[in-house]
Structure formats: structure tokens, C-alpha cells
Amino acid sequence: MAEETRIGVYICHCGTNIAGVVDVGEVSRWAGELPNVILSRDYKFMCSSPGQELIAKDIKAQGLNRVVVASCSPHLHESTFRGACVSGGLNPYLFEMANIREQDSWVTTDKLEATKKAKALVAAAVYRVSYQKPLESLFVPMDPSVLVVGGGVAGVQAALEIANSRRHVYLVEREPSLGGHMAQLDKTFPTLDCSACILTPKMTDVGKHKHVTLFTWSEVESVSGYVGNFTVTIRKRARYIHEELCTGCGICWEKCPKKVLDDVFETGLGYRKAVYTPFPQAVPNIPVIDRPNCTYFIKGTCQACKKFCPTGAIKFDQQDELLTVKVGSIILATGYEVFDARRIPQYGYGRLANVFTSMEFERLTNAAGPTGGKVVLRDGVTTPKSVGIIHCVGSRDVNYNNYCSAICCMQSLKFAHLVQEKLGAQVYEFYIDIRTPAKAYDEFYQRVLKEGAQLIRGRVAEVTNEACLPGEDGKLIIQVEDTLIGKQRRIPVDMVILSVGLQARADAKEVAIKFGISCSVDEWFIEKHPKLDPVATMTDGVFVAGACQGPKDIPSSVAQGSAAAARVMSLIGQGEIEIEAATAVVDDGTCVGCKECIPTCPYQAISFIEYVRKAYINEALCKGCGTCVGACLSKSINLKHFTDDQLVAEMVGAMQTMKLFEAS
Amino acid sequence: MYEPKIIGFLCNWCSYRGADTAGMARMKYPPNVKIIRVPCSGRISPELVLRCFREGADGVMVLGCHIGDCHYANGNHRTAKRMAILRQLLEYNGIEAQRLCVDWVSAAEGEKFATLIASFTEQVRQLAPFVEIMQ
Prior knowledge:
Helices cover 29% and strands 24% of the residues of chain A. Chain A is an alpha/beta fold. The longest helix of chain A has 21 residues. Chain A starts with 6 loop residues before the first strand and ends with a helix. Chain B is an alpha/beta fold. Chain B has a single domain, classed as Rossmann fold (3-Layer(aba) Sandwich), CATH 3.40.50. In chain B, strands 2-1-3-4 form a four-stranded parallel β-sheet, with helices on both faces.
């Protein structure tokens, strides 16, 4: 190395997060004696602006050409300190970080051991940084189009925000219409405004927006590329309706003779035809033909819809289409599924007729629902005089989902209000804890209490129709321990509503793999940072919004939709995207042309140059995983910033320190 | 009994974040493992693991994303195959295969990470220090 290596080491106290366990002064003193270390300091908060300025100033004043900061995880502040190096005039790749918080002070009980471990980690970083080389990033143009997956309220919100700023949005929805779960709801808590009245105008805006291309009844087939340049293949499933010719007049479903139980939108409480739109305000207002239930597809006869369609829009020979679009960023807003209440047999759902789920109740009480908004028992006529609402069904339960589903308390209180308002019936709510932590939520709870709902604290043991006490005949009996009075109680009611929790979609994992993001143990999509980066993911250019990231109510889903749109807009505003500088390179001198590396590359970035018989890596395609490096038999491939020299130096630094402590 | 010296190669996207998750949850585990961050577990060549032993490491951990979850699609498939062969090579050369830990830890699995570190440290502790068996 022509130039003398001058390393500056900074040990962060992180308040008491690190300094409370690790003797930072000692680590700093010790680091000062490591080879090539010119200065070593400890400071209260390295990430603060004085901390960052300290680095920049030292680089200039002391002529530092390498910097090591020992603080938190590089996932949190690597980019911060790289920025500080850049402002001091140093190439960001001449910086290295030692993680002495997440991997040391927070996980080690013994202070002496923690200090030793910090020394080893700092030594590893110091040894490594000497071998680091300056790298220059490549910039590629950012495609300003955006893919939004999921047409629920979060996706619709995100799409609208982006389209309103005149960027093009491709909005993909699996169902025949936009709307998601929100379209099924009756009233929304705590304001009790009608769900459809606030949602459908947004859906219409998106549907007719000139900057939105809508793909309903469609799914994303595959995704390739990277931030700024994704190529997405969308499968547009055959509707058997010509979209341009269809006027949405509705004659086809009036004439269709086949009635089908609607177990998606109407949760099995109502019927639709074999050609249908899920609800009258559907966007787009173009029906689909339900192929497995259509008489023509089953028997080859009928064609009633085709005979009566005034524009000739019925096309029985339509095929699925595969369309390819190019986008620069992606927002996933794929939502949730409701917990299947059949999984808790003691609550009787599916066995006892008058046990309903919360989604069924939404449809029952909805004026556009199968009963026209009349709350009746399963027989279709009887009005219940007493209703029991069970909270936390499938949530906060080690047997099902550990987490709180966030919306069920408020949803149940809303039901209590609606039942009392519509029927004047007695309402019993069975809860574990009441959780109403948002604006105007607790006020709503107080209001429902005043209206006379009885709240009983205790997890329900069972719902049964076996009467054993007077007054229980013909009723559903809720057996519960009322934990506030410490007694077992049996409450007879006419109707039971199970406030089912939310859970990740059954194919969430598959979707996560398709888009290169990760899922938590409960299969919700993982955000980049739980507090500071809630809508970004670890994959650049892929964002999440709404309940696909975790249970969420409507206000939070809308907020996330807007947040994701803002993140996307800030990317688009940059105009170009910095791509990975740490790519792999082949050493022509030693490559033997064995082609061992070529099949290992997940991105087809390696090609074989026939006339020189050497491998060649296309840096624009390389994502820097280094799998080819691990495979290269002649050690001719190196991954920049993760070279063998650098990793071995890091390992040696750690090993030497550990051996030193062992000897002493 | 001695304090084993262990080097852990962790992939940037799952396992390293799993270690962060353990840290954020303040889960306590033994300090013996020094972590080296790599982009993908597929980056780890067998030579790199052998270099650790040559340097005197008593154990080496290679942790990556779960199969199917790799940030780079399938880098960890290579790890799985490569490390299985390396394990046999170690045995063939008189190095106990228990000194090499290959496992998958996701970003959410802080608890699994902490437990794995504790159990592997204990497993290596049961063996003689590596320098002794090499003499």
C-alpha cells in the first residue's frame, strides 16, 4: 500500500445502552494501541450531529483514511456514518462498523466479558478496514411507474396519491372489484360513518384516473429486476367478458339462471349469479363469469347472458392473458384474512346455527347486505332479543395467534352499539382487556357503556345449546368465568357473534418470496424498521402498506398507504438509483474457465467469454451475494467489499484478541 | 473447561437481523461467538471456514436465511450443499464435525438465534480446545 494507513476509531456510549455494560473508555484506550490506529475516541452519541461532525473534522485535521465506529447494528446507522465519512471527504467504503450494542452490551450480562467481546469486535473491524478499498457506486435511471398490489383501502389510497402526482400506477387486484374487506363493512368505528360511502368515491377516482391502469381479477405472476427497474408479469384471468364492450348494464346477471352461494363477499349468507360483480358499486363495473359454476362451461348449453347482452360483450372463448409491465417501485397492500372460527370448536361456529362471525354480522347489518340490513337469526325471520359478543376469537391465544388483532375490541363495541340501536336487544360483551388506544376510541367505548351494554371480563369457555337451568331453553348459553367477581356464569342469549381476529393471508409466504421480502413468524410482512421505517422493506424499491404488515384498522391502513406513496415519490424524485457497488469481479489472470460459477448466480450475471475461455460478470446485473465466490475453484472471483482478504483480516482480528485474553 | 473461541458468519438479510432481533429483545447469550457479516451465506467458501480453524477457532458457525427465503433467491442452497461436503472433509481430517454449525435463522427468530449460540457454545465446550487436537 503506497499510502500510509491512518485509522480513526470511535466508540459510542449510546447513552448507557453500551456504556452501562461495556467499559467504553478502556475499549477506546485499547483500540488506540492497535496497528495503524492514529486516534481513538469514545463519545456519548456518535450518531448525533456533533458525533458525525467529529468524524468529518478528524478526517480532515488528522488525515484519517479509514474510519471505524463501534456502536449499534450497521442496519441502523451504517449509512449515517458513511455519510459522515463522505462529508469529511472520505470514500464511504473506507468505513467499517463494529456492532457492540445488539451483539454485545444488550446480550451480555457480565460487564468484564462484554468489554472483552467489544475489544474483539473492534479489533476485527480495525484489521478489516485496512484492507478496504474505495468503491464508486453506479447510478441507473429510476422508472417512474409504480406497481400497487392489492386494491383494498391501503392500496387504493397509495395508488391515488401517486397517480395524483401524475406518475403512472398499475393497480393489481385479485378479486373482480377493488374495495377489499372495507367494502364488506357496514359502519366504521368510532364515527359510525358508512363504509361504502367513504370508500366507493375513492374506488371510483382510482378506476377512472388517467394515470392508473387497473388490473382486476388479476394476479402478479412473477417479478424480476431491482429497484428502479422491475419487470412484472401480470396474469389477467379470463373474465369471459369483453371489457371494452361491456357497459355494466347488468342484464347478464339478471338473465343468468344460475344462483351461486356467495361465500366470499357475502360470507355465505347471500347468493349471487354465475355471472356477477361482487357488489353494486364494483369498480370496474364489469362482471366476471364464474367458470366452475357457469352452466355453459359445465354443460355447454344456456348462454343466456350472451343472448341478452346488448353489446355482444360475452366472450366464452376468452383466455388468460400474461402482460408485462416495467415499474421502478412496488407497493404491496395485500391485506389480511379473517381467522377461521371453526378452528375453535367449543365456540360452536358451523355447528350451532346462531353463532355468527364478525364478518357475517357486518353483512347482516349492512343495508346492502343479504337481509337488507335486518339483523335476524339464521332462520331469516327471528329478531334476537339478546346478543353475546365474544372478543379475541383466535387472537391473544397461545393455541392460535399470540398477537392482538388490534381491531376486534372496537369492532365488538361497534356491534354492541348497532344491535342496541337497531333492535334494542340486550348486549353482553366478553373481553380479556378492552383496548381502545386511538383518537376518539375510548370515548366510543364510554358511550357504549352508557348505552347499557354489559361487559363481562373473562375468556369464554364454551358456547352450548344444552340447557340445564331455567330460562336457558332454546337459547345459546355462554359459559364464562367472570374474573371481576370470580364466579362461573352461564349467560343465555339468542345470538352469538365471534369477533374473529385477523391473520396473514394463506399465501403470504409465497407472495413474500415472489417479491423478495420476508415474513415474521406469524407470516406478516416484515418492515425495514419497526419504528423508523415502517413501510419500507429490506428489499429496496418494495414497500408494504396496510394489514399485510400486521393487524391494522382503517385509519392506520390509509396512513400507511399514503406513507408508502410518499416513500415511492421520494425515490422517483431522485431520478436515478444508486446500485450496489459491492459486486463480484473475475480475475482474468487466474480464471481457468471451469464454468463452475455460472450456474450458481441467481441473476444470470455471469457469462462465459468463449474466445478467451474466461468467466465475465456483468456488474449491472450482479447483486453482490458472493455465491460465485464461494464456488470458484481457482479463487479468481472476489466480491468487492467482502473480499477474502477483508473477511480473513476481520476473523484474524477477532481471533487474535480472543487468544490474547485466553493467554492472560 | 475452557472458553471456546467461535467465529460466526451470518448473512446480512436474515441471520444478522435475527441477531439484531435478539439484541433488541435483550436476550442474553454467551459472549463466545464473534460475528462476521457477509451478504449471503453462499459467500462462505470452505477455505474461509478452514482458515478460522487454522487461526485457532474452536468452532465456526455459518448461518443463513431459511431455504426458500434467501434474499438472493437461492444462495443458501449452495451453502447447504457445500457445508455438508465440508463437514465430511473435516471428519476425514480428524476435526469433529460438531465444530461446524450450519443453520438457518430468519430476521424474526431472535430467540432461535440466542438459543443456538448458547447450545453451540456448550457443544464446542464439550470438545477439547482445537489447538490441542491439532498438536
